[in-house]
Amino acid sequence: MPNPAAETDADYHTSVSNPALIEKRRALIVKGAIKLFSENGYYKTTIQHIAQEVGFSQGFIYQYFKDKDELLFFALQVVLRRYLEYIPAQVSTTRHPIDKLCATITAFCHIIDENLEATVLAYRSTKSLPSERRSVIQELEVETNRFFLSPLSDAIESGLMTEVNRDLLVYQFVYFCHGWALKSWHHRKLYSLDEYIHEGLDILVRPYLTQSGREYWEKYYG
To answer: Looking at the domain that runs over 4-220, which CATH code has it been given?
Structure first.
């Protein structure tokens, strides 16, 4: 199985030797690429379009990325690593399993709200990668899903939630969080982000609580 942590900046094509400059310029290119890939689709977006978006020449882009495929791969990893860095930081001090599960869903929704275009890109464009690179992205996605599985399992094993198919419920959490980006044109007309999260927790967490879980919920969330 590919190791996502093994992919570093050194693994990507570049003819530039200054690490700080590489990081700065790649970030600029990736930002423009994410915008265009999300708006126009991966196949319709060319390196020339990206170069025009960021205000540089095609030759400039090729100093940092070998081709469009490598740029997409890098961009998708940037998106998913934002999730991997942000979510643990937001829930690190939360101890109660129900609180941690709710905090994880909340944190995922917030980081998605900050990266709407990037989330849409990750959801729709992973299939455009060659199989080996697609496997790396999928492993990063699975790693993100573990943030939900851990507190869900703790809540079940503590007698706070009923036993369910944990894998399927985790993916319901993920789909819900992604939905804020994928259907933002609809949801934003009806809800603020906090309202969306509140309604989602009421649908995705509360129905699975045991008696003791419901008592805790009513005390702190009711």
So the answer is: 1.10.357.10
3-state secondary structure labels for all residues of the chain: CCCHHHCCHHHCCCCCCCHHHHHHHHHHHHHHHHHHHHHHCCCCCCHHHHHHHHCCCHHHHHCCCCCHHHHHHHHHHHHHHHHHHHHHHHHCCCCCHHHHHHHHHHHHHHHHHHCHHHHHHHHHHHHHCCHHHHHHHHHHHHHHHHHHHHHHHHHHHCCCECCCCHHHHHHHHHHHHHHHHHCHHHHHHHCCHHHHHHHHHHHHCHHHECHHHHHHHHHHCC
- Residue 16: its pLDDT value, please? 61
Structural domain boundaries in the chain? 4-220
Q: Tell me: the pLDDT tens digits for 65-122?
A: 999 999 999 999 999 999 999 999 999 999 999 999 999 999 999 999 999 999 999 8
The pTM for the full model equals 0.88
Q: Distance (Å, rounded) from C-alpha 47 to C-alpha 45?
A: 7
Burial class (CB in 10 A: 0-12, 13-18, 19+), 218: exposed
Q: What is the pLDDT of residues 76-92, one digit of tens each?
A: 999 999 999 999 999 99
- Residues paired with residue 161 on neighbouring β-strands, in sequence order: 209
Q: Quick one: which of 175, 184, 176 has its CA closest to 38?
A: 184
